[in-house]
Every structure is written in C-alpha cells, then in structure tokens.
Amino acid sequence: MSAPLYPSGTVRALLATDLVTDATRAALQARLDAPVHEPVFFEPHTYALFQTVAARLIPQPDRAEPIDVVGGVDKRLAEGKADGWRYDAMPPDREAYRLGLGGINQAAEALFQHPFVALSESQQDAVLEAVAAGTAPGENWQQLPVGRFFEEMLAELTENYYAHPLAQEEIGYVGMADVPGWTHIQPNSLEPREPEEVK
Amino acid sequence: MPDEEVLEEGVLNPIKTEIQDPLLQAILEENGTSLTAPTELEQPAPVPNPTEEVDCVVIGTGAGGAPLLARLAMAGLKVVALEAGPRRNPITDYATDEKAQSFLFWNDERLSAGKNPVAFGNNNSGTGVGGSTLHYTAYTPRAQDDDLHLHRDFGVGVDWPFGIDELEPYYTELEQFLGISGPTPYPWSGPRSKGYPLAPLPLNGAALLMQQACAQLGIQTSPAANAALSARYYQAGIGWREACTNRGFCQAGCNVGAKASMDVTFLPLAEAHGAEIRADAFVTEIERDEKGRITAVVYEQHGQTVRQRCRHLFLCAGAVETPRLLLLNELALTSGQVGKHFMAHPGMQVWGTFSEDMRPYKGIPGGLISEDTHRPKDADFVGGYLLQSIGVMPVTFASQMARGRKLWGQQLRDYMRNYNHVSGINILGDCLPHESNFLELADEKDARGLPKPRLHFTAQENEQRMNAHSEKLMRDIWTAAGATDLWSFERYAHVIGTARMGLSGDDAVVNPDGRAFDVPNLYICDNSVFPSALSVNPALTIMALSLRTADKFLAAQARLDGNN
C-alpha cells in the first residue's frame, strides 16, 4: 500500500471555523504565524550547522519554505526548559547539543575532510548514518553517548515538525477540530470535517 | 559529571550550564560566548512562623491525595492541600494540542539510569491541581486478588498486607462516584458487589479490529472500563458532568470534564466541605520536634517561603517526589526501604499499518481490553499482563517512532503519511521488585538548588520474558487483523514502589494503614506504597488506597478521642 496523500489547506481551513476551540486555535495559529526565528542560544555557525543537519533528518524538498524545526530547540535551550527527564548518561541538554553538533562536524572532517555544511547531501547522510549507528569518529563522542544524542535530537526535531499545522495537513490529522464531538469513529467512517485521501 | 554540582536549567531560574569539555570551551571562547558559572541561590530570609495549626496537610492533589482530602474534609477536619503545580481551567486553558498541553507534565528534570531508563515528563508524571490524573488515560481496571499475592503464589516479590476484600468496597464506591463506563458483567477480576454505573464507551477503529482478530484467535475481549463518562452523569456533591465527546485526547487534559480527573471530582467535593487547596506550592522541608513528630511543612509559593503547621501530614506526591522528599528531609528512613524497589510496568506496544482508514485520534484511546493473559497457561514468567487497544496523537506517535524505530530522512516522512492507517495494542504487565532498581538523590541540583532524583531501572529476566511473550501474541493479533509493517516499541510506564507498605518496620516504610512505622503522624498514600506493581493500571487502586487510608486514619482518631 502506498502512503496516502491528503489535500493541502485542510487544517488552515478548519482554524477559520468555529469547529476549533479558542485555546486550540491560538496554539496552532501561533505556529503558522511565527516569524523567522533568530538564534538566541546557538551562535550563528552552530545554528547553520544544526539547520543543515535537520534538513537531512527531516528533509522538506517539497516545501518552498520548510517548517522550522530547529528554532524551537534554540528557544527551549535559551529559556532553560526541560521536558521532565534526561538519560543519566547524557550531560545537560545545552551541553549535549553543543557537544553533539560539534561531534557531527568532527565526524564530517574525519570521513570527508570538510565541515558538515560543505558536504554533498549523500555525504551528509553518510555522516548521520554513522552517528545513528554509533560509529561516528570524533573526540566529542568520548564525552557524549553518540546513539543517545542522535535519538534525543531526532525525537525533538520530529516532535517540532509534526506539531506544525502544515505537517498535520500532510498526514491528514484534524483532531484539533474539537468543538463538536466525534461520532463516526469506526474504521473507514469519516466525519464531514475529516479530509479524504487524494486518489 | 558525578563530581560537579551543576544547577540545572529550570523554568523558574534559567541559568547557563557550566561547560566541562575543554575543546568546546576553547571554541566558545573564540566565538566570544561567555561561560557563566552557575548562579548561587540567595540566602533565604527567615520564614515567618504562623500560629495557625491545621489538622492535616496533604502534599499532592492526584489520585493519592485528592480522595483522602475529600474524606478528611467531610469528616470535619481542617485540611490544607499543597500542590506543586498551577490551577487551570480545562475549558479555556486546554488546547487540543500536544505541545500546548506540556504544562500538565512534571517537567523538572529527572535523571533516568539503568539499562531501560524510564521516560518521564509526558510519560506518567503530572503537575497541577489534579496531579497526574490530569493526563492519565483513564484506564480503570480493578486489581485481582492474586495480584496482591505474588509471593504466596510464586515465591517471589512480597505480598500486600491484605487481600482484595479490603479494596473491593472502595473500588465499588469509586466506580459509582466517578461514573466509570464499563461492561456489566465484566468477564474478569472476580466477584464485585455492583456493576459499572454507565455503559461502555463506543469502540473505535483499533478496538474493533483487535476485537475481530482476538475472536479469530480464541482470545476473549471486552470493552474496557474507563473513567470517562459515556453519558451525562450526576456526581454526588458536584453536580452534572458532561459525556465524553470521543476526542481521543485522554492522554492529555480533557476539556469537557468527562474524564474523571481529580480536578472535576474529589477536589471540588473536598473544597465544598471546607478543604483549602493551595496551588503553586512546592514543598521543600518537613519539620519535626525533638520527639520526631512532624510539626510543619515549608513550601515555596510565588517566590515566598511559607510555613504551615500541622498535626498530621499525608505525603501523596507520587513515587518519585514522595521518596525524594523523605530522603531530602531524612524522614522515615529506618527500614532502609525509601527509594528502594522501584518498579515500572512493562508497556510493550505493537504497531501495524492497516488498509482501513483508522484515524487513531478518535474515540477513547483504550477502548478494548483482554485479561486472558492475566495468568497465561504457557507463561515462562511470574505474574501476568493485560492487553489494551491504543489510540495515539500524532506528535506522541512520531516521537516514539523516531526513538523506537529510528527512521529518519525521507523514510520518516513517508512512514508518517500512514498515520491515519496505524493502530496499536499494548500490554500493561506486572513488574517484580529488584534491588538494582531504585531512586536516589543525584549530586546535580535543580533550579531550586535541591538534588535531582535519579532513577535506575533495568528490566530483569521476568520482565524480559513477559515482553517477549506479549510481543509475539500482539504480533499474532495484528497479523490476524490484516496489519502490515509491524513494529514493536519496548517501553515502561508508571512509577511504583520506593516506600513500600508492609507488616513490619524492618522491611517496609508504612504499615497496612499507610502510616509510617517510624514517624507517628506521617501517612504516605500514592503508588510509592505499592508492595508489588499489579498487572493492571494503577490509578483506581491508588484512589482506593487513598479512601482506605483516610478511613483508617479517621477510625484511629475516633479511638483516640474515645480514650480521652
């Protein structure tokens, strides 16, 4: 079965209706309307490196304006917010990101003799595969468990992506239309406000 | 960094982390980034000593604290509840959005160690008036009698100091009061004095497909019992509550009040009877007199430090913050059991892709249950588990898929486009206490300057065998249902143990009534006192213990009064 496609504009259209509570609309609309994030925590070179890494982990060649998955990390680290837990084997989040992104650059230099941002996409993917597999070279990995760092970074970027209304349009999610209840909850049974797959 | 005292970043007190790595330090200095040392906490001003003494202070307003708070208030006692989190209005404040609801979670950092580090935050730890019930999934199966007797039946673990007959009346009372929706008769869990007050909630896609597949395989299923109203319900002392809208958002906060979280059930009842609930009140110290009796609790609220004097203390802060407070205050430690025997339920999940349009965001997430696996005949492990169908919201699903399945790049986006076609089943299984699983205070400090809790958890042989048994069975069920692209996610949910209940102060922290053996006016009531983990979701049993603890306390007070 090939993965389904959904029409675009579905969530944005719902947000303009009274099918969505004010609290829900405010949360989603703020993400749609967010201005371009200027880094606060990361210095510009590190931020550019992080954006390049994120573009390979969650590639968006289909979007003229990619959903920003990195800005939220910068904002969180600048504000000093945590998500309730951390692997004991990992240093605090700020240090983990600094060490981990530095380690990705070290791996790029060791494998391809150039910084990560200067590599081709396939070379970048090879570096990230080594990071994901826990085999990436680089002295920073002496202080940071490489596999755990990859998992934490991927999970956070993924969460930021699928929290965005445009990504939710992409997967046909309209659970935010929460004012009326749901009555058609059986398989293959849709409410009028649920988008059908594009055949 | 075991030797460094690092003040962790926190919501209230953001600070810069000290950098340990010399290479990184050099890079940062080159870039002109300053390396700020942790800020020192200011010396606190002396705490004013109020004259007022209340009968009872209850720390925590979740499933452990709220029922007993109501009971004590209804008995005419002057009671104050201290809740670390804020008070919210679900109707106006709860967006149907996973990120926007992160304020419901206990987001102060906990350190997870061991071979199977347990996730916290949005996994089983809540904050706010209502505690973790604000985001529990409202599963409310009863424990069975043999759940309380693993040692009797298998020779491992420890038994509860009483049988299910002690809990049954409270289960019944809770089901009636909270308006639990479920089938009557319910196929498992032994004799019960009353059926569920409301009919089961409707089955969603995952529940219906699991039902059909289990029927093919000869596994009995039933609509589950859920603490969400299948019809409008009149709740004694509170009034009408509205029915569930099948919004599927139970793992986060319910914005219609259909889910029986404590903020719409026991807490308003408690307040109607004079209980006072203080939100944003983070307890830091428990004070005692020279005889060892607790005299007062010190907490921080809105930047102020406040002391509340009390005659009795009920510690109901959950199986992480309860032992943490005991350890911080060197309280109730004579048994050596505080922080020990931490248990976490195996929560193995199996996900599959279906040709049917499933829409996993609709309906109660845990619609269908089977307890046929309570004591499986072919088990190579102790205890048992139950099976539940599961619904899921997209961010949670994507996040655990990234962690568990490790897809990234185009593969990740391609897989996630199947979100509307995925369905899951999971288990909730017993966990044996083991000495290598425990909570301790770390050297690393939180934003308040208090040591962070570190939890060690490694799935032992019994948990591993249970995982393997259940994974195979769930794969068989989903295969029979026509699923493709199956994958499993090994996870651990619920925090249990760390201040166990027992018959003797030599090996338990509290007695069968919930009173600490070595502190005469301290009661503990939450999942920390569970001697064993149970093969069911814990919330209903925590509430039952809470009511029982209150009744035992009140009976003891009455006896004392009679002696006067």
UniProtKB/TrEMBL annotation, chain A:
Name the UniProt record assigns to this protein: Gluconate 2-dehydrogenase subunit 3 family protein
InterPro entries referenced in this protein's UniProt entry, alphabetically: Gluconate_2DH_su3
Pfam families: Gluconate_2-dh3
TrEMBL record, chain B:
Gene3D superfamilies recorded: FAD/NAD(P)-binding domain
Residue ranges occupied by any Glucose-methanol-choline oxidoreductase N-terminal domain in the UniProt entry: 125-346
Oxidoreductase found in the keyword field: yes
Chain ranges of the Glucose-methanol-choline oxidoreductase C-terminal domain: 433-545
UniProt KW keywords: FAD, Flavoprotein, Oxidoreductase
Chain segments annotated as transmembrane: none
Domain of life assignment: Bacteria
A Pfam match: GMC_oxred_N
Record flagged with keyword Flavoprotein: yes
Family: Belongs to the GMC oxidoreductase family.
Name of the protein in its database record: GMC family oxidoreductase
Organism: Hymenobacter tibetensis
Organism placement in taxonomy: Bacteria, Pseudomonadati, Bacteroidota, Cytophagia, Cytophagales
